[in-house]
Design brief:
216 residues; mainly beta; Elongation Factor Tu (Ef-tu), domain 3; 6-stranded antiparallel beta sheet; 1 helix
Length: 216
């Protein structure tokens, strides 16, 4: 469950039981991910090492909502095609190949920091819809956003409103990634990701994450 957590200031409760809410900012990403199948010695060690490397929230984790079934695919293609070989038909030494997105969308103009709307140019994509995730990047840093209103399409362009606000400037022509949206997150608390083993052999742990502000 990925959601935008509003940044609200709550007033005192009135005699009628109501409370005034004031938004201090447009919010930030949080995520609850549960039921990880940690069912073998190798996965137990991998989980321990990964959670330990995050240092209780000091270090970043690159992760996304795994939302390919809601991506704006076209012609029955998956969002990303993997295993593409070199021109001579060979793969990399580990048996993997190149990957390529089947969804091509870009920003049609410069987008400033804190922007919450944009006009996007569609080169190849299905229908862009409210509720879809996308990512833009500044160098290697990703910033994930969600469309919050019905888009308006005109020819090869679509106007979208989204949250949270842009975390950095986005130049015209930049890729807008609907195929594999990701962002940087931290552990929401030092206790998040605790691994309670049953019979010392398996577990299905959960993890609580929040958007990383490192480098912003």
């Amino acid at each position: 469950m990925f959601r935008i957590k509003p940044m609200l200031t709550m007033g005192p409760v009135s005699f009628s039981g109501k409370r005034q809410k004031i938004g201090t900012d447009a919010g930030f990403w949080t995520a609850t991910m549960s039921g990880f199948p940690v069912l073998s010695p190798e996965k137990i060690l991998e989980w321990r090492g990964t959670i330990g490397a995050l240092q209780g929230g000091l270090e970043d984790l690159l992760i996304g909502p795994f939302d390919e079934f809601q991506a704006p695919t076209l012609g029955g293609l998956p969002p990303i095609i993997t295993g593409i070989p070199h021109s001579d038909g060979a793969l990399f030494s580990d048996g993997s190949g190149y990957s390529q997105s089947t969804i091509l969308v870009s920003s049609s103009a410069d987008l400033d920091l804190r922007r919450t709307s944009a006009r996007l140019r569609i080169e190849r994509a299905g229908e862009i819809k409210k509720g879809m995730y996308f990512t833009v990047r500044q160098g290697a840093r990703p910033s994930m956003h969600m469309i919050t209103q019905l888009p308006e399409k005109t020819g090869d362009f679509v106007d979208v409103a989204f949250l949270p606000p842009l975390r950095f400037d986005v130049p015209a022509g930049s890729d807008v990634d609907f195929a594999d949206p990701k962002l940087l997150m931290n552990l929401a608390s030092p206790e998040s990701g605790d691994l309670a083993l049953e019979m010392g052999r398996w577990s299905r742990p959960s993890i609580e994450l929040e958007e990383s502000w490192n480098g912003l």
